């Protein structure tokens, strides 16, 4: 009996010695897990539950099932208007940023002097506050005092100023230009980092074989940067579907104007509609939660599609 008790004691001590080291990682991770559950997971779950209710933020919640999603997809033309605006501005900005970014990166990578200065100057717009960006472009494209109209009128290329910010396509073009101007330095830096990682032996071998600069860029540099391009495309699609700062600040964020969505809602994005329905024009938190979850599904869908299109294909598939 004493032997059995000693055996159980030794087994318990062995178990504690075995599980003690294994428990420490979980204990160290516990604060992050609790913080993530409280400030990330719970709001996400609660937002979905809220999307199934009609609630103005003050009174009692009324459960209505998926009626918010039904109204959003069948009775709200502004949702599809905002989605089409967002996609159009993405198609305007993402290809231009990719092409100009990789060309600038390749040119900068070849520089012997002034390379760091050029990188810094081009990266500054990426760290500039959105408020300043909205002010700059509002000033540049203003109808009466804008620098663009003044220059065009000065050289005689126009007889009267253009209403840049009040046109359907010019407003989208300006917002796309803002996105390109802001993200160009970031794209350039990422591409330069990828070019730095390419072994120089590859370029030396190509040069010995008589490869020209254009041939080297298209047949060697670009294929080796394929993974970086995929990363930039996918992240640009995710960020593009969440476009908000540029159009909001361009149409009154800095001046206090109440022009929501720009002229005839041609600059309205999905996130801007979400904010407007939540805190400005309406206080329909259940409906706004349905917009947020619908956008989440769209982001996942478009991210998968963009990855499938741009990712390198495996042999035999």
Automatic annotation (TrEMBL):
ABC transmembrane type-1 domain: residues covered: 83-306
Q: Where are the transmembrane segments?
A: 21-42, 87-109, 121-141, 173-193, 224-244, 285-307
How does the protein's chain sit in the membrane according to the entry?
Answer: Multi-pass membrane protein
Please cite one Gene Ontology biological process associated with this protein. transmembrane transport
What is the first-listed, main subcellular location in coarse terms? Answer: membrane
Q: Pfam families from the entry?
A: BPD_transp_1
| Gene Ontology CC terms | plasma membrane
| Coiled coil start-end | none
Q: Tell me the keywords, alphabetical order.
A: Cell membrane, Membrane, Transmembrane, Transmembrane helix, Transport
Q: Where in the cell is it found?
A: Cell membrane
Task: Indicate the family of this protein.
Answer: Belongs to the binding-protein-dependent transport system permease family.
Q: What protein name is recorded for this chain?
A: Sugar ABC transporter permease
Q: Which organism is it from?
A: Cohnella thailandensis
């Amino acid at each position: 009996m004493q032997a059995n008790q000693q055996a159980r004691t030794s087994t318990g001590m062995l178990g504690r010695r075995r599980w003690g080291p294994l428990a420490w990682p979980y204990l160290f991770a516990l604060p992050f897990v609790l913080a993530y559950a409280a400030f990330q997971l719970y709001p996400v779950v609660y937002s979905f539950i809220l999307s199934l209710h009609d609630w103005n933020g003050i009174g009692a919640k009324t459960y209505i099932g998926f009626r918010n999603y039904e109204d959003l997809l069948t009775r709200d033309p502004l949702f599809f208007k905002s989605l089409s605006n967002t996609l159009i501005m993405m198609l305007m900005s993402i290809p231009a940023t990719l092409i100009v970014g990789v060309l600038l990166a390749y040119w900068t990578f070849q520089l012997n002097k002034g390379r760091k200065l050029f990188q810094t100057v081009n990266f500054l717009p990426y760290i500039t506050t959105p408020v300043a960006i909205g002010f700059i472009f509002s000033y540049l494209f203003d109808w009466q005092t804008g620098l663009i109209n003044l220059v065009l009128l000065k050289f005689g290329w126009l007889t009267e100023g253009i209403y840049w910010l009040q046109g359907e396509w010019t407003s989208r073009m300006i917002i796309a230009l803002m996105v390109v101007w802001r993200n160009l330095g970031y794209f350039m830096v990422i591409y330069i980092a990828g070019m730095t990682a390419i072994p120089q032996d590859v370029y030396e071998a190509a040069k010995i074989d008589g490869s020209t600069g254009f041939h080297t860029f298209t047949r060697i540099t670009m294929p080796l940067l394929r993974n970086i391009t995929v990363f930039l495309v996918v992240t640009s699609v995710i960020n593009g579907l969440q476009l908000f700062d540029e159009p909001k600040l361009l149409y009154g964020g800095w001046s206090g104007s109440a022009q929501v969505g720009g002229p005839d809602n041609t600059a309205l994005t999905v996130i801007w509609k979400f904010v407007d329905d939540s805190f400005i024009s309406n206080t329909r938190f259940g409906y706004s939660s349905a917009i947020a979850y619908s956008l989440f599904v769209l982001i996942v869908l478009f991210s998968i599609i963009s990855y499938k299109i741009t990712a390198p294909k495996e042999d035999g598939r």
